[in-house]
Specification:
Elements: H1 8-26, H2 34-68, H3 71-76, H4 78-100, H5 104-108, H6 113-141, H7 150-158
Helix pairs in contact: 1-2, 2-4, 2-6, 4-6
Length: 164
């Protein structure tokens, strides 16, 4: 599985390009190529939006992936697990296709990816909220759990057995 590494250079190049495009757009000599400049500026803006959504999705996916890889958590949260694996499939598909085409601008402006990342981020946010609600119910049932972090509590819950 591949993930995006450090994108500092890409972000810096994007910001520099946006400044350059703003300078070109404000030039009085742009009249002959204005449509091309506006098209490229739109692509850069789209790339920036996709990159922001992508990084947010990757951060949330990486956090939740380790949680939902535990079979006990999958059993205890079946709806959230199903939603997570829907996002997981889409995210892995995008990462696989990105590996096959490593040009940042081409990958970041692929039609439909912005909408996919927005949808995935919304689903991951709901999964995360429901996970927090689940942990809160466990804390209310056993108040000593309030002294544990979410990660520690998840570790305990993923190792529990349903003893009768």
């Amino acid at each position: 599985m591949f993930i995006l590494g450090a994108v500092d250079e890409i972000t810096a190049a994007l910001e520099d390009s946006m400044v350059t495009m703003a300078t070109i757009t404000s030039s009085r000599f742009v009249a002959g190529i204005r449509s091309e400049v506006e098209k490229l500026e739109g692509q850069l803006r789209l790339f920036g939006e996709v990159l922001d959504q992508w990084l947010e999705c990757q951060k949330n996916w990486m956090y939740l992936e380790s949680i939902f890889s535990a079979p006990d958590i999958q059993r205890q949260l079946p709806h959230e697990s199903k939603a997570f694996y829907t996002v997981d499939k889409a995210f892995r598909d995008i990462m696989r296709r990105t590996r096959d085409r490593p040009n940042a601008m081409m990958a970041g402006t692929t039609p439909g990816w912005l909408e996919t990342f927005i949808k995935c981020n919304e689903m991951l946010e709901r999964v995360h909220k429901n996970l927090e609600d689940y942990l809160e119910t466990k804390r209310m049932a056993f108040p000593r759990f309030y002294f544990l972090s979410n990660d520690e509590l998840l570790e305990i819950l993923s190792q529990t057995k349903n003893c009768q």
